[in-house]
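Database export, one record per block. Field names are fixed; values are copied verbatim from the stored entry.
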Amino acid sequence: MGGARPGRYGEHDHEHYERPRRRTRPRTKERPTYDDAVEATVVTVDRGRFTLLVDGTTVTAMKARPLGRKGVVVGDRVRVVGDTSGAEGSLARIVEVAERRTVLRRTADDDDPVERVVVANADQLVIVTALADPEPRPRLIDRALVAAYDAGMKPLLCLTKADLADPETLLATYRSLGVPWLVTRKGGDLGELRSALHGRTSVLVGHSGVGKSTLVNALVPDADREIGHVNAVTGRGRHTSTSALMLALPGSPAGSPHPAGWIVDTPGIRSFGLAHVRPEDLIEAFPDLDEMTEDCPRGCTHGDDEPECGLDAAVASGEAERDRVDSFRRLLAARSEPSY
C-alpha cells in the first residue's frame, strides 16, 4: 500500500527487454524520374484496372502507389512504365497523369458536394436526345448544357428518332442560346454527325433508350455496344453501357496514324448533379451576356429575382433579346432544380 506499483514483469522475464525495432529504409525526398516512361491514353476503367492505348497497342495497367488517391479517368493522358507489350497477362503501371485540358464533371446529386470527373480532355459534349419513345427531357438537356459550358466544351444537340416526331418543338427552346444541333432518323445517313465529330474528342451523353448505343455501333462498327429497349409502361430505357469507353472513329486518310476523331460512350444517365457550378462561371460561356453584367451589384446571380441585374437593364434598352436572357436564366435555374 502506498509504495511504487511493481512493474508487470521482473527484470529476468524476457518480456522486460526492449523488443527489436523493425528495420525500415530511411525516407528520402528523391522520386524516380521515370525516364523510360511512355505516353498513353486511358480508354476505359474497370475496377482498378485501366485499358490504355500506347502507339496503337492496347495495354492493361494499374495505378502506381505514389499517385495515391489521385483519380485516373477515361481520356487522361498518362505516362506508364513496365510491360507495355500488350501481351496477355502483361501489366504496366501508370506513374504520371498529365494536366487536363478540360474536365467534364458532375455530382451524384445537388446535395452531394463530391465531384466526379466523368471524362478528361474532351472538347465536345454531344447530348443525345430522342424526339419520342422516350419523350425528351428538357431538364436533363439543360443540365448537360450547363456541364458542357462549365467544362469549356462545345455542346452539340443530337436529336434521334426524327421519323417519330417533329424536332421543331424542342429546337425552339434552344435556338436563342445558339446551341448547334443536328437530326438523325432510323436508317438515315450519318454524314452530318460524322462531320461534326471529325477531328474532335466528343463525349456522348443521354439517358437510356435514346439511341446512343445505336449511333455508336453505326459510327464504329466493331464497337458492339449493347442496345437496350424502352419500357412501354414507364417510357424509360434500361442501362446498356455500364462503363465509359473511348473509341477511335474510322475514316482517317490512307497512311495517317491518327484516327478521324474520338468518341466516348458513357453509361445512360438518370441525373446530372451540378453542385459544383457557380453562376459567375456559367455566364462566362455567353460573352455577350457577360458583358452586360459588368455593372451588376456585388453578389448578383443574374437570376429572375435579382432586383438590379444588368441583364434586365439590357433587355429594357433593347441591347439584349428577351428570349436569349430567358433561356440563359433557365439554364441557371437548372442548377437547383431536381436533377432527373
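Remark 1: The CA atoms of residues 215 and 324 lie 31 Å apart.
Remark 2: The first strand starts at residue 38 and ends at 46.
End of record.
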